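Field log, afternoon session.

UNIT: design team B
ACTIVITY: writing a sequence onto a fixed backbone
BACKBONE:
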């Protein structure tokens, strides 16, 4: 799985930053009053933590412990879930190490509060304004900084590099659209990616793409999400849902985006003639959309129940809107057939690993660019099925409902395929330990 795409150092970086980066730094510094207003409005919508907003300005909420400190940034819940096993392994390997995990969302902060082990701390990521970033780095003084996936924040990278902090990008990925944008700004890309000491990409293609932007020491190690812990299942909630459904056939459309719920509802309508007791569960990617989805589907003639209102599906419920946080594992455990959203519209598709590892058979639309290295082998092996329309969805869900053995076979193939692709966690752990063990420039 490992493939060295580029090697070297930072010697070829230009002495001065490109004009676009200098302009960005100036604008982000001058925009601090506007950034305060943005955070205030986000907090009013529940997207920021009122009590911890100072952390977004680089003001630490807790003291820095003595000794080596590894700063690890994960954007949101999915990335946080993927790095939790990595945190545990690094702490076990280095007894004098503390890990600071930063994230950018309220939901990921909640997950960190529940799941982080001893010697791991959580703070919100500071906004990417020079004064805020410098304040953050002055307090935490990380030994190395580790970013995940596609978290390329210019001021964070430039300020950390200027202080001699070794930088890594792990589980690195990039959509075709993002790659094209970076390729259109080659000097900016080289100024940022060239300051990374190591890039651990999810596959060979991504390693080559990121190396082409100026990154050095770029290696394919695999996808950390393949080794992430299983999503939690609330057994009491699962029992309550299963009891409420009273043996009715069901399937879940998970992590849906705007535009997909109407397609799922059309598929539901098509299936009702063959499966009149069918209950379709929709778990939107952004739960705050739940009430609007419910209103739209009710206006289209569907009988809807909404989980955030404390409702359970009843005998007359067509579509159940599961607009709550952290319950996908519970839903997969009772549904066993899952459509993974963001894929019938051009959003790159969401993560299929979580559903497949919990034994659900996976349907996905044609837009899979965010997880190509996972979907391609799954589909090729027969461990997932690609669909293009409500008709396709209805046809495949009905086939699995009518022949559960075929559904179980697809799920078994998916499990075998994911096991074959795993291993990124161990390779990533060893690479970071190696970075911790040697001084910058060595």
């Amino acid at each position: 799985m490992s493939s060295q795409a580029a090697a070297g150092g930072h010697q070829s970086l230009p002495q001065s930053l490109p004009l676009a980066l200098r302009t960005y730094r100036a604008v982000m510094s001058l925009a601090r009053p506007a950034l305060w207003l943005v955070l205030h409005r986000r907090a009013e919508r529940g997207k920021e933590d009122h009590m911890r907003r100072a952390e977004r300005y680089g003001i630490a909420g807790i003291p820095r412990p003595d000794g080596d400190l590894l700063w690890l940034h994960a954007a949101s819940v999915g990335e946080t879930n993927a790095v939790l096993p990595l945190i545990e392994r690094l702490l076990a390997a280095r007894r004098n190490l503390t890990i600071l995990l930063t994230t950018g969302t309220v939901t990921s902060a909640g997950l960190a509060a529940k799941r982080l082990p001893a010697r791991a701390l959580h703070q919100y990521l500071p906004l990417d304004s020079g004064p805020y970033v410098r304040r953050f780095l002055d307090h935490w003084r990380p030994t190395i900084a580790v970013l995940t996936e596609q978290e390329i924040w210019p001021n964070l990278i430039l300020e950390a590099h200027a202080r001699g902090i070794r930088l890594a990008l792990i589980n690195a990925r990039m959509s075709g659209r993002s790659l094209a944008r970076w390729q259109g700004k080659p000097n900016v890309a080289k100024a940022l990616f060239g300051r990374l000491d190591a890039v651990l990409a999810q596959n060979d293609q991504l390693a080559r793409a990121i190396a082409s932007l100026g990154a050095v020491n770029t290696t394919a190690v695999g996808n950390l999400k393949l080794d992430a812990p299983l999503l939690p299942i609330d057994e009491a909630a699962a029992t309550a849902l299963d009891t409420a459904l009273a043996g009715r056939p069901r399937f879940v459309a998970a992590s849906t985006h705007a535009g997909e719920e109407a397609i799922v509802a059309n598929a539901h309508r098509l299936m009702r003639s063959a499966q009149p007791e069918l209950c379709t569960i929709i778990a939107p990617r952004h739960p705050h959309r739940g009430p609007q989805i419910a209103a739209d589907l009710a206006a289209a003639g569907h009988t809807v129940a909404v989980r955030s209102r404390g409702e359970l599906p009843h005998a007359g419920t067509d579509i159940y809107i599961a607009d709550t946080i952290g319950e996908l594992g519970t839903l997969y455990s009772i549904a066993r057939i899952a459509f993974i959203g963001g894929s019938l519209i051009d959003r790159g598709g969401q993560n299929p690993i979580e559903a497949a590892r919990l034994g659900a058979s996976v349907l996905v639309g044609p837009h899979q660019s965010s997880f190509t290295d996972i979907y391609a082998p799954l589909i090729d092996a027969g461990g997932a099925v690609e669909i293009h329309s409500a008709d396709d969805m209805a046809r495949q869900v009905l086939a699995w409902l009518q022949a559960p053995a075929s559904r179980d076979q697809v799920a078994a193939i998916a499990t075998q395929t994911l096991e074959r692709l795993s291993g990124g966690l161990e390779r990533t752990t060893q690479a970071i330990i190696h970075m911790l063990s040697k001084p910058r420039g060595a």
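LOG NOTE: The chain has two domains: 3-222+423-437, 235-421.
NEXT ACTIVITY: expression trials, pending approval
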